[in-house]
Amino acid sequence: MHASAPAPAHRLKSILGGSAGNLVEWYDWYAYAVLASYLAPHFFPDDASKDLNAWAVFAVGFFMRPIGGWLMGVYGDRHGRKAGLTLSVTLMCIGSLMIALTPGYAAIGPLATVSLVVARLIQGLSLGGEYGASATYLSEMAGKRHRGFFSSFQYVTLISGQLTALVVLLVLQAAMPEAALKQWGWRIPFLIGGVLAVVVFWLRRRLAETESFAKRDAARKSSFGALFLEHPREAAVVMLLTAGGTLAFYAYTIYPIAFLKKTAGFSDAAATQVNAAALFVFMAIQPLAGALSDRIGRKPLMVSFGVLGVLLTWPIFTALEDVRTAWQAFALMTGALVIVTGYTSINAVVKAELFPAHIRTLGVALPYALANAIFGGTAPYVALWFKEAGWERGFYWYVTAMIGISLITYLRMRDTAKHSRILED
Predict the structure, then answer these.
(1) What is the 3-state secondary structure (H, E, C) of 271-334?
(2) Conformation bin of residue 103: beta by default, left when phi > 0, alpha when psi is -120 to 50
(3) Beta-carbon count within 10 A of 387 CB
């Protein structure tokens, strides 16, 4: 029996509320990345390793994401999608305000460093839970007819958060003297993130719960053991379909900045501008691809990403080696991001459609977080390792091979749009 569908206005309000929170979460997460060089002198001893230490703390947050996916996935399955979303943004708020308000190393010594590490651990825990909670909420709330379209806004807001953090820094650089920005101005983006998180907390407290959660089989409990013992195939599918997709996402979005500077010879400003422009286009086409999946199914989009990724990753990166103009670089990067859109636009809804309601949040969150930590978060490091080993093009083959493994998964799995385990109409 299908659950009754909520009114369109009610559904849209819920989707907007869930999406806005996702944007703020990713803004808070990426604010650290764009401000790492500014906060490093304040949280570490004044020596040559302070910048490296700041990036090490950034990496620590990634290790918490699978733990967050596990703990908060179970929480969302047992206490509700709304409860999971609210807890997630609360933790992100705490982490951001800790970074914004903690005195520097000169004032409190090593306690400043400890506070920064704790703040990033809390943020990593939050983000690990946010993916599963928001993917599940948007997919369940969207309704069958437009599920692909509305769930694609998860990546729209993810990319928006990244771009917003960059824009806030650019505005501060233009509005403040450099000395003031280095001394105290860098705290402003974290304060903004904390305040926005409070607003999102208020919005999420007023969200409606999904029908799927209300009508789940409450006698069956979500847990780590239940996921891998009762749904091993679905968990494996999530990891395998994510492996190539998340690696391609990081390879096409994060790595090209360093690639254009170190390999193609672009300036810092030019590389950043090209990347931002390509990301904007990437963000804009997510809903188009999501809507297309509602008409033709999810599987054709994923297969198209797999086939084009296998065939064109090598040509795109080798062509980037020889680009000399920003327009050439923009065209190649945009082409790569159009390809990966076949994964990013629908990956959340595909995962949600694989699991029954009582374990859906955990099923989406934990296998994704594991695959993301193994293949996505390590992408820049692996690329640099190949480069320092004298075989930079080995990274292109690595990306191609992992997309190929995911392609095999796409070809073998059923189209979740036709075999969805989400019951809402």
Answers:
(1) HHHHHHHHHHHHHHHHHHHHHHHHHHCHHHHHHHHHHHHHHHHHHHHHHHHCCCCHHHHHHHHH
(2) beta
(3) 17
DSSP state letters, 84-144: HHHHHHHHHHHHHHHHHHS--HHHHTHHHHHHHHHHHHHHHHHHHHHHHHHHHHHHHHH-G
Distance CA 91, CA 185 (A): 23
Rg (CA), the chain: 21
State the DSSP string of 228-281. HHHSHHHHHHHHHHHHHHHHHHHHHHTHHHHHHHHTS---HHHHHHHHHHHHHH
**CA end-to-end span of the chain:** 10
Q: What is the mean pLDDT of the chain?
A: 89
pLDDT at 59: 76
Q: How far is CA 205 from CA 21, 116, 215, in A?
A: 11, 28, 20
Q: Whole-angstrom Cα distance, residue 124 to residue 28?
A: 11
Give Cα separations from 212 to 25, 224, 225, 331, 405 (angstroms). 24, 20, 22, 42, 32
Least Cα distance to 356 among 268, 182, 186, 226 occurs for 226
Q: What proportions of the chain, in percent to the nearest 5, are helix, strand and coil?
A: 80, 0, 20
What's the pLDDT score for residue 48?
A: 60
User: Quick one: DSSP state of residue 175?
Assistant: H
Could you read off the pLDDT of 382-407 as tens digits, one per residue?
A: 887 888 888 889 999 999 999 999 99
Poorest-confidence range of 42-51, 134-143, 300-309?
42-51
77 vs 387, more confident? 77
- Residue 373 · residue 62 · CB < 8 Å: yes
Please report which confidence band the pLDDT of residue 7 belongs to, taking 50, 70 and 90 as the band edges. low
Q: CA separation (Å) from 339 to 131, 204, 255?
A: 22, 33, 16
Among 70, 195, 65, which residue's Cα sits nearest to residue 127? 65
pTM: 0.85
Query: Taking a C-beta distance cutoff of 8 angstroms, is the pair 403, 310 a contact?
Result: yes
DSSP assigned state of 359:
G
**Type of residue at 279:** L
pLDDT tens readout for residues 333-365:
999 999 999 999 999 999 999 999 999 999 999
